[in-house]
Each structure stands twice: as structure tokens, then as C-alpha cells.
Specification:
single chain; 134 residues; Trna Endonuclease, Chain: A, domain 1; globular
Length: 134
């Protein structure tokens, strides 16, 4: 007999994947095109970019997707702290280093507030230029 136990890590991964898919669908409806999903820097201590999108005008958009069930403690936006921003910027620099020329770029956030498995879809807020690289 095989018993499978679904741990918090797999549940969290599934929620993250669902939130990213909802964010991706939302951005595509706004006219953005997917370039890359879940780009990671090599090695430990690096960063990850949830979605890399391209605007119609060619701007490359690095997107952080955050989901929270409630707005307690500042909600999804408050979870994009400065250390998280630094890791995203690091990953963006790694991604850009692979390109022959660097296009205009922007760091956005897509915030999902509410339950992903509830009867109502979560509220989605797209923050353009949510933060900047130094």
C-alpha cells in the first residue's frame, strides 16, 4: 500500500502556480506577450522572476506575482520587501546580460487578493513600475 501525504510545500507550489497563471492570463488580456516564466539565476542566493513579459512597444516587463488571502499585515503588496526587490533586480540583470541589446525595462507587480479556491475569483491589481532598479 502506498500512502501519499501532500505537504505544505506542494500546496504552496500549487497556489503559486495558480496565482501566476491568473496573473499571466490578466496581462495577456492587457496585450502583453510572455517571454519567459520562472527565470532563475544560477547558484544559491540568487533571484527569480515570476513572469517576463513584453509590451507592444517593446518594453520588457519583469513581473512579481504575489497572492494573499486577506489584506492583514498589508496584503500582497507589503510582501514585496526591499530584499525581495534586490533579488528580482539581480535576476533581471542576469536575464538582460544574455541579450544583444537592452530594451526599455520595467518592474511590475501583479497582486491577487483573496482565496484562489473560493467561489469568487481573487481581486487582481496590476501595479506598473512597482519599484525601480538603482
Amino acid at each position: 500500500m502506498t500512502i501519499q501525504i501532500q505537504g505544505a510545500a506542494s500546496t504552496s507550489k500549487a497556489r503559486g502556480d495558480r496565482a501566476e497563471q491568473l496573473a499571466l492570463d490578466h496581462l495577456r488580456r492587457q496585450g502583453l506577450r510572455l517571454v519567459c516564466r520562472n527565470f532563475r539565476t544560477p547558484g544559491r542566493g540568487g533571484g527569480e522572476i515570476d513572469l517576463i513579459m513584453r509590451e507592444r512597444d517593446g518594453t520588457l516587463v519583469f513581473v512579481e506575482v504575489r497572492q494573499r488571502r486577506s489584506s492583514d499585515h498589508g496584503g500582497a503588496a507589503a510582501s514585496i520587501v526591499s530584499s525581495k526587490q534586490r533579488r528580482i533586480i539581480l535576476a533581471a540583470r542576469h536575464f538582460l546580460a544574455r541579450l544583444a541589446s537592452i530594451p526599455p525595462c520595467r518592474f511590475d507587480a501583479v497582486l491577487l487578493q483573496g482565496r484562489l479556491d473560493g467561489p469568487e475569483p481573487p481581486a487582481i491589481e496590476w501595479l506598473q513600475a512597482a519599484f525601480y532598479a538603482d
